Amino acid sequence: EKGGYDHFMLKEIFEQPITIADSLRGRLMANEAQIILSGIDDIKDKLMAARRVIIVACGTSWHAGLVAEYVIEELCRINVEVEYASEFRYRNPIIDSDDVIFAISQSGETADTLVALERAKEQGATIFGIVNVVGSSIARISHAGCYTHAGPEIGVASTKAYTAQLAVLMMIALKVAKDKGTISEERFGNLCHELNQIPEKVQWVLDNEVDNIKAIAYKYKDAHDMLFLGRGYNFPTALEGALKLKEISYIHAEGYPAAEMKHGPIALVDDQLPVVFIASKDAYHEKIVSNIQEIKARKGMVISVVSEGDEITPNISNDVMRVPNVDEVIAPLLTVVPLQLLSYYIGVYRGLDVDKPRNLAKSVTVE
Ligand code: M6R
What we know:
Structural class: alpha/beta
Domain SIS: 43-182, 216-357
Helix content: 40-55%
Order of helices and strands: HHEEHHEHEHEHEHEHHHHEHEEHEEH
Mean pLDDT: 96
Subunit structure: Homodimer.
Largest sheet: 5 strands, parallel
Low-confidence stretches: none
Strand order of the largest sheet: 4-3-5-6-7
Strand content: 15-25%
Organism: Sphingobacterium kyonggiense
Bound molecules: 5-amino-5-deoxy-1-O-phosphono-D-mannitol
Catalytic activity: D-fructose 6-phosphate + L-glutamine = D-glucosamine 6-phosphate + L-glutamate
Number of helices: 15
EC number: 2.6.1.16
């Protein structure tokens, strides 16, 4: 049932070219520059009139929500708030019937998310579910939605469910932007094309980078702490990389926006601290290069996720993990893959049960 892989987590990481394609299938028509999402059509009037979208989720699904905040605000010019379900449900949030809530959940059974949605629904909000498990509780209480189609995810660490969530959220952002007229025809067409190419670009990483990532994992497997830093669209990727590492390897890790480092965390940097930079080519690339130099100046060990063909970042990094070039908006779908592999191999080299890390359950149905 693991299809020849040692663990479900590895199988699920390797399935991503297929699962992402499954999420896009029948929805993204890149050649015709068209996106069909009937769930979004169902709430179109609400969405067009909404003052804001509130995203409610936990864990990795919350990270997908954070990516969506960056993408929806940029492309659709709609205000987005991303909420931890556990906080949202208890703090008596201000919700009204104009609000549209995007609920993101792999299992569709996460207790905090479910209760937060029930409360918001009582107050008149429109609930849109982005859920993997068909017929799950969150899918059922949603007014409309869009399944992620990643297939069953067995490993406790979310991998293919996350990239499927991102694929769906990207399509939603693109479709709404087109409907609202906040994106040019040309940019829309280009981003559809870029999104359509993601399965083969993920495949490229799996075909070309695994041996390199294994060697990096072996080198850093005994670290006590790691920092993950990214900016812009890749800031949530830093958080996700850190969460994956914590779960699978029990190494303490933190994700931060790269520029926040100098407001505190830089005090941690010494020659024992590996710092992972998500440094794929984007509008902030020069800035992240200077953040890398700040770490190097303090003798930190730098592992960078870089775009193929980048000749600058590898020279100032101790180790690099390469990804194909990709538009910055779509990049989170790709840059997370080396981080999933890094955590997986570090967990394996530490002799841990990567499919069932201690203290964790696949779905958290208690608060
Ligand atoms: O099923 P859900 O997406 O609602 O689960 C949310 C989190 O419990 C989940 O993403 C958790 O953080 C994963 N173990 C992360 O790998």
